[in-house]
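The instructor's notes for this session suggest beginning with a concrete chain rather than abstract definitions. Hand out the sequence below and ask the class to guess, before any prediction is shown, which regions might be ordered.
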Amino acid sequence: MDRFSLVSLKNDTDDRKIFQHPATLIRLANLLMGVQWEKDKHRKQRKERGPLPVIASWMDMEREVSLVVGVNLESKNNLGNRFNEVAERLKIEVNHDSFMANIIMMKKESLGEFLREMGQV
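After discussion, reveal the predicted structure:
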């Protein structure tokens, strides 16, 4: 995907359950964005724009929900607005358990369609 980088985790092992917490998932996304920045900073096309936004999802197989977070380097994290626009367009029911719009939860079967549409926005 050329609009964002994606990391997707499942809770199929005990050590991955730590990512069920939004703050931990955001830290992972920020870490990956930093790695991407270091990797790409010598490429002229990325140097001017900065790294791609990172979307990280964590799928809870037992509860059948997905937690999705998005981070970027812009001072205003517009991913939250894009998350809401895409969810409304696709009529996906999402929950915001946080005051941050860039953290949402949805049914796991909606995740694939949601991410495909985010790649088109």
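Then share the key points. The helical segments are 22-40, 44-49, 79-90, 111-120. The first strand starts at residue 5 and ends at 10.
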